[in-house]
Design goal:
The chain is α/β, with parallel strands linked by helices. The chain contains ten helices and eight strands. Helix 6 packs antiparallel against helix 7, helix 7 packs antiparallel against helix 9 and helix 8 runs antiparallel to helix 9.
């Protein structure tokens, strides 16, 4: 169910966009019909006709501050996405609107935007996964071998504040995008969202139901919050304890095998 606040946001946003040369896509859970009030982000991508869009961007951001919604807003200009399609930011920001997004405003400029090459997509997905692993540790670089973010914490340091709220979302992102990397490298599949990852991963790997259960509990039952019952706390502790095994498998089987360990591109430093 979508509350009036979300509807009001989109109504007012449309009024702002009338005065701008911009295309707007809604992506993620809202576009896929999986949005949960108070739990899900609203993923919105704006693609401006011209490069000098900062004033319009700031207008959109100021408008968003009026609404207490979890918003993930991304901004591009047309030249940026077509002239530099393999950049990390463009690949991460445009793939989901292209594959399963919904056009909200303007013309569909992504019809002529090509998907990144398999090599570029794999590198982008690896980088995204590394970003989540680094975020869990509050670091810009990781030393090998990695350890738990906080060995002495009940949740091993994986339950952190994101956007001012203690949440299990980072743990879910680590698990799902490690799985997404595996699908990209081993199966050659493009995965625009964590929901696509979970659905597809179950078709190919024996631990697919394990991943699906994590998303089902963290998102659907707990709303990415910390559970309050003993059974839920024990289950969350288990997933946190197992996360390091998934991370190490990702580093050994995917990151190192893709010859990135000495480049520093993904954020590792050795020594």
């Amino acid at each position: 169910m979508i509350n009036n606040k979300v509807e009001d946001y989109f109504v007012q946003l449309a009024g702002l966009l009338e005065k701008m040369e911009v295309t707007c896509y809604i992506a993620g859970s809202y576009a896929m019909g999986l949005y949960i009030e108070g739990t899900s982000d609203l993923d919105i991508t704006f693609i401006f006709k011209h490069e000098n869009y900062m004033d319009n961007k700031n207008t959109i951001l100021r408008h968003a501050e009026q609404f207490k919604l979890e918003l993930d807003l991304m901004f591009f200009c047309e030249n940026e996405i077509f002239m530099n399609p393999s950049s990390k930011q463009v690949r991460e920001g445009i793939l989901s609107p292209k594959v399963n997004g919904r056009l909200f405003w303007g013309k569909n400029v992504l019809d002529s935007w090509n998907l990144p090459s398999p090599k570029d997509y794999i590198e982008s997905t690896i980088d995204l996964t590394l970003d989540f692993i680094k975020e869990a540790r509050g670091l810009n670089y990781l030393d090998l071998p990695i350890n738990y973010p906080n060995e002495n914490d009940y949740f091993k340091g994986y339950i952190r504040s994101r956007r001012g709220k203690i949440s299990t979302k980072l743990l879910v992102c680590i698990y799902t995008w490690i799985a997404g990397c595996r699908l990209a490298v081993e199966k050659g599949l493009y995965m625009p969202s964590k929901y696509d990852v979970v659905s597809e991963y179950k078709k190919h790997y024996d631990d697919g139901e394990y991943l699906a259960t994590l998303l089902r509990y963290c998102r659907d039952q707990w709303g990415y919050n910390i559970p309050t019952d003993d059974k839920g706390l024990t289950l969350l502790h288990h997933y946190c304890a197992e996360a390091l095994t998934w991370e190490k498998r990702f580093i050994d089987d995917i990151y190192i095998e893709n010859n990135k360990v000495n480049t520093l591109i993904g954020g590792f430093q050795n020594g």
